[in-house]
Amino acid sequence: MSSTPRFSVIIPLYNKERDVEATLRSVLAQTLRPLEIVVVDDGSTDRSAEIVESLGEPLVRLIRQANAGECAARNRAMREARGDLFALVDADDCWKPEFLEEVAAMVAEWPDCGLYSTAFEVVSPTGRVRGNCPTERGVVENFWRESMSHYVTIPSATVIPRRVVEELGGFPEGMKMGGDQWMWIKIASRHRVCFSPRALCEYSMVAANRSSAIYTPEQTPYTLEEFLQPPYESAAENPWRGEFVAKCAIGKALTLTAKGDEQFGRRVVRNFGYTRHYRRGLTKLRLLLALPRRLRLPLHNFYNRWAWRLAHKGL
Asked: Which of 96, 199, 94 has its CA nearest to residue 156?
């Protein structure tokens, strides 16, 4: 990697005509200018791509492809990118001006890490709140244990070195939900993770077309179960790692079961029922599976809204 960080900003785009301009302007406003901004339009049916083109920004490179999913769009952007560091941001989230500058400082201080991330703010329909993130800056001592109670990384606040992507491969194409968590597990199984508690990303809960709201059945060879098999450590060999993998699988299964994918939910109960630290999530999943299908999604959505308001005192 060169002494001067060369950031390629990676933006997957699908039907975000209301949000993508604000995202791009937040990237263009960085105090540390990126080498390029690679936007892959993944078969949008609205004016998303036209809005990107209308900005006329020389740093922005727009690539169009037939719809293949967010993971495939990210992978295409990384293949086309020229930088040493891939800075991810979704087309409905934004960065504070110092985001790339802070990541560059972390890379200079801890150059051997496989993933760099910062804290973030959540923009909800009723207000703004800081994400539940760690408070210490630097290499995360135990990524798996920390991630059980805090958000160490989300896609729009994450930077991955090119060398790591070339070593481990990209995001799991065909996985329509949880592909980011799959990638974090793969990276953290081999590399250290570096974190900054500065909230330099804005994650939007008000944007249209978030992936969890438009789930369709997956067709992918990738699973979370693969991380419990050789060459990876088993849950018994690395309990905290096993707990985090189980948490990711159960969280995904809750949403898919609510939307009618009962088979996926039962598979997760069978394969991840070993969890000790996420029993509440496992109990919720079992309750959803016991309910009539017509009641699952309304109850799931009601619980999530209630839990959010309770956790954030009415926000």
From this structure: 94
Rounded Cα distance between 100 and 87, Å, is: 8
Residue 289, C-beta contacts closer than 8 angstroms, at least 6 positions apart? 257, 262, 265, 266, 269
- The b/e string for 99-134 (b: 16+ C-beta within 10 A; e otherwise) is bbebbbbbbeebeebbbbbbbbbbbbeeeeeebebb
Phi, psi torsion values for 60, nearest 5 degrees:
-90, 125
Helix, strand or coil, per DSSP, at residue 225:
helix
pLDDT in tens, 221-277: 999 999 999 999 999 999 999 999 999 999 999 999 998 899 999 999 999 999 999
> Which is it for the CA torsion 281, 282, 287, 290, positive or negative?
positive
Which secondary structure element, helix H or strand E, spans residue 186, and what is its range? Answer: helix 179-188
- pLDDT, one tens digit per residue, over 93-145 is 999 999 999 999 999 999 999 999 999 999 988 788 999 999 999 999 999 99
Tokens of 118: 């910062």
Tell me the whole-structure pTM to 2 decimals.
0.92
Q: What are the helix (H) ranges across 29-149?
A: 48-54, 70-80, 99-109, 143-147
Three-state SS for 230-287 is CCCCCCCCCHHHHHHHHHHHHHHHHHHHHCCCHHHHHHHHHHHCCCCCCHHHHHHHHH
Rounded (10°) CA dihedral 76, 77, 81, 83: -130
Residue 253: HSE in the Cβ half-sphere, 13 Å Cα cutoff: 30
Please give the sequence-ordered ranges of beta strands (E in DSSP) within the chain, or none if there are none.
7-13, 36-42, 60-65, 85-88, 94-95, 115-124, 127-130, 138-139, 158-161, 193-204
Using an 8 Å Cβ cutoff, are 295 and 265 in contact? no
Query: Could you tell me the two tokens for 54?
Result: 């209308």
